[in-house]
């Protein structure tokens, strides 16, 4: 009843803008929702979601808890800690605990007491619909009904009958706010000024909820001078709300989308005047917070970005709880930093009123890569604002970030190294400078210096977000410098199994995999190493090595959580030849590999190895680890990320002379089926031409016409 197309348009606008313009992460959970953790790294990173940067920057100056991913109990045994989107944690969030039955809320208890005092019937009142009320109806809730009742009970000049009649009229307005209520119409003016004031207030409010804003304005205007204090204050506040709602009457397009450029400028200016008049008359009034918030909405309607930015920054820095801060950042995003606004014009030509918000916008523009957007001259013009706000270190960091991200001037970064503070949780800006310096060393391929830098910062650092980022950077440095084995050295500070697992899967040599399969720090690491090693053995055709390496399984004594480590299930290699394609029989994997050790081109064994890959889906999968974006510039054709190549096995059988007809025909069948039905190879490795696939099809049909495989294959793709 209370939802409107304007409300739907506003909601859709806020959702799409938040997801499409602020976040650099695709497919993320709703920012700020419970169990939807920050996805960005713990520094002022242009690549991070703008909201992540803003909440970190604001909490730098106040001890509010951040919605960050909790640490696992044993990080050396878990791959649950990483930087990136956290969809699983959000989807798998525990459900709310059941609420006790028939437990009265403080509001319901208050209403019961008030209705008893007013002589009203104790009919059930449900506030379930209150959360659904939008726009002008948002104030017509049980708390405001209770406030009206409290005002009636506090007014000594009302008779019991007057209080009851007025209370009944207010309840009728709550139940059907958009209707002409008979209860209100039946109220007689009378001679009591207090009763008349409350009655006139209800009449103006009925006009307001019916959308008759001129009539509501007349009614509230007349009540501003009322001697009844509650009515006078509330009427002055409602003048602002009336004008604000009036200003948006024609701001919804044919599709239900809200367009703040179609606002009635005169009405919204009137709303601003009314809001300021209320705050002047009632600076500590019961609606002061609401009126202040409405001034931000008015600035948004008027596209007064500088005022809006200043008001929002003041709100952010005043937040005293994490929930309040998250809500304030969501408002900042929806009204100011949603891209629709900030991409259309230079919102922050000045950072005088909002240096923190301006900083996150500058970081966003650095991410976008538009060199014309952030120039040295533009930053220089902002320096006084940051000095005035005692945020000169932040301005210095933005200057260095521009040098790094826009100019790739790594030498300039390295010319002024930051302090290498190793105290627990150094200041966010200092830590950002430290990370930028280390990244510059890596960009210059000064691997030894980068390694030493990360180690220096990691010294004596307790378990924390910052420690994990430093571990990640040290891992990247050692991999890119060709020294992945150093990640597993006895004195290595890299303990997170996530980083170690990714290294084993993507960068470890067979020798390193063998070492960690035998001497890894726990069963989890040994399992990951061995699964990777055995898969790589089979992919490389090292069949003798496979049989030898399989004996390393004796070093794994425990049982891992199946759901957490299903990508490295060693039971895969216990394949007994079952579940093969009907009509083609295979022995166990060990027997198949044993045959290939003796006869590497045995057609049946090669086909059965392909069948093992086909039925089990075995591969070295980095999917559990690549949730964290790793900027290694690894080629998509890198063998570390390539699935096993079944097609190559079939091609060897097809090309090999002396292969039994059963095996040759099956290899031809399977090679063609690699392209069914999409026409793209899903068996790994390189595509072959359609002509080649046609040749395989023709060979099967002409040379083996009686084969079950020739009869089954109807097409080539």
Description:
- The chain is an all-alpha fold.
- It has 31 helices and no strands.
- The radius of gyration is 35 Å and the shape is elongated.
- It starts with a helix and ends in a 5-residue tail after the last helix.
- The N terminus is likely disordered.
SSE layout:
Blueprint: H1 5-22, H2 50-59, H3 87-91, H4 106-118, H5 142-154, H6 160-175, H7 182-185, H8 193-209, H9 213-223, H10 229-247, H11 265-281, H12 288-301, H13 305-318, H14 322-335, H15 355-368, H16 376-388, H17 392-405, H18 410-414, H19 428-443, H20 447-458, H21 465-480, H22 497-507, H23 510-519, H24 523-540, H25 543-549, H26 589-598, H27 603-616, H28 646-655, H29 661-673, H30 690-703, H31 708-712
Helix pairs in contact: 1-14, 2-15, 4-5, 5-6, 6-8, 8-9, 9-10, 10-11, 11-12, 12-13, 13-14, 15-17, 16-17, 17-19, 19-20, 19-21, 20-21, 21-22, 22-24, 23-24, 24-25, 25-26, 26-27, 27-28, 28-29, 29-30
